[in-house]
Design goal:
The chain is an all-alpha fold. It contains 16 helices and no strands. The two termini are 22 Å apart.
């Protein structure tokens, strides 16, 4: 729970201080990179950590992640420019790539599906507390002009988390030889980086239709195609693509992709939207987005006993997607008329929906495999969410930058801020609609007491998503 708190607080604490960071370091057009590079580093490292965790165990990887997150936080705290801060966020992301999936995987190892509902409730409570603490701290630090403490506050938390994991968690593992898929990891990293570069800098550093603009996308897609080819031949692929042939794992991964995009689109842009369009303080902007991250753990905590243990995973996910669609539609429809109260309410509804999607879909995926694959499956789910967030941050950032550039006014101009924020919210709504389609395609999933699991890929098959004996 303490380790999860590191990632949970970081998910919301920076967004409220973006205007302050930009004011100090400059380069508003670069601020989406603060989120994209962090999430990209997290995404591409998750599959590597997940594979190593199934080989060496969860504990060493968790401690490594905490150490990297500590180092990255210290470096971010002393960053002297926006490019430097972006570079140091990569180190933080590499740490987060280990901590978040390892925490969830450990919970999957030591609890049955029924017990896991309660355990996930405890973990969700961390997100509930962090959803208030993160934006509040970010807003306070921004108002006091000490935004660097957004990162430095992680230092004592990292030390406590590392000490607790070292002392309190023990595991029995079977050590075996392994082969790290360096080629796959490199192709994935560079390919995604080029795609994100093309999205963020297109129309800014170069014209969309210029040779450079087209070349960046072509090179990125070519490298990603090469990644797919390498993964099919790799002895131990960084991302086992064969898992995506299982309908349950494919649809839950697509849902996680959408959840990541929706989440980053709102947590990253809502505070800036409110602060620049209405002139509210960073603290108020942070509390508005806190409604989103508060609704999530509330729904996740209730999802087990009240929903998926009774009715199955798919109905729970569809209810969640319905709430998410309602919330994002309300936010997009009212985007041209900024209101803190409306934003808070629509974000809370969206958070409730995401909580009923993210946790049940992940547990369904985990419960369909045994211990040997659970780390990789968890990593695939976390990878999908991080990729959704990384690419989503780039796309939404490009949308906002385009509106700002077209207005020929600064991003702090209220009318410009309103228009750019509204455009981002409509883009988030599109991501929600696509996620609804993935939820509809998810196979019927039923959670029962007992052990063992089976998965069905037919449209009418049931899935007894139970905990495999561990």
């Amino acid at each position: 729970m303490v380790s999860t708190g590191l990632i949970a607080i970081d998910a919301t604490i920076l967004a409220t201080a973006v205007p302050s960071v930009v004011k100090d370091l400059g380069d508003f057009s670069l601020f989406p990179w603060l989120f994209s590079v962090y999430l990209l580093a997290q995404a591409v490292s998750v599959p590597v950590y997940a594979k190593l965790a199934d080989t060496f165990g969860r504990k060493p990887l968790m401690l490594l992640g905490i150490g990297l997150f500590l180092l990255g936080s210290l470096l971010c705290g002393v960053a002297w420019s926006m490019p430097a801060l972006i570079a140091f966020r990569v180190v933080q992301g590499l740490g987060a790539g280990a901590v978040q999936p390892m925490a969830i995987t450990i919970a999957g190892d030591i609890y049955t599906v029924e017990e896991r509902a309660k355990a996930q409730g405890y973990i969700a409570s961390v997100w509930a507390v962090s959803s208030v603490v993160g934006p509040t701290l970010g807003g306070v630090f921004a108002q006091l002009g000490i935004w660097r403490w957004i990162f430095l506050v992680n230092v004592p938390l990292c030390l406590v988390a590392g000490a607790l994991i070292w002392r309190s968690f023990s595991e029995s593992i079977e050590r075996r030889s392994h082969r790290v898929d360096y080629a796959g990891a490199t192709l994935l990293t560079v390919g995604l980086s080029l795609v994100i570069l093309g999205v963020l800098e297109g129309g800014q550093a170069w014209a969309w239709g210029s040779p450079l603009g087209i070349g960046v996308f072509v090179a990125g897609v070519a490298l990603l195609a090469g990644f797919v080819a390498v993964e099919r031949r790799a002895a131990e692929p960084v991302l086992p693509l064969h898992l995506l042939t299982r309908r349950l794992l494919l649809t839950t991964s697509l849902l996680s992709l959408g959840v990541g995009a929706i989440l980053i689109g709102l947590t990253s842009f809502v505070p800036t939207y409110l602060e620049n369009s209405l002139g509210v303080s960073p603290l108020v902007g942070g509390l508005a987005v806190a409604a989103l991250t508060l609704g999530w753990p509330v729904a996740a905590t209730l999802s087990g006993r009240l929903f998926y243990l009774r009715y199955g995973f798919r109905p729970t996910v569809l209810v969640g997607m319905g709430l998410t669609l309602l919330g994002t539609l309300g936010l997009a429809a009212t985007g041209q008329r900024p209101s803190v109260a409306v934003v808070a309410v629509t974000c809370f509804v969206t958070g409730l929906g995401l909580g009923l999607v993210a946790t049940p879909s992940l547990i369904a995926a985990q419960a369909s495999v045994d211990w040997a694959e659970r780390g990789v499956v968890t990593g695939l789910n976390m990878f999908s969410r991080s990729i959704g967030s990384a690419v989503g941050a780039a796309i939404f950032g490009a949308v906002a930058n385009h509106v700002v550039s077209a207005s020929r006014r600064p991003e702090t101009d209220p009318a410009t801020a309103t228009s750019s924020g509204s455009a981002v919210f409509w883009a988030v709504l599109v991501a929600t609609v696509l996620s609804v389609a993935a939820g509809i395609a998810m196979p019927q999933v039923r959670a029962d007491d007992g052990v063992g699991a089976r998965t069905g890929d037919g449209p009418d098959d049931d899935v007894d998503a139970q905990a495999a004996a561990a």
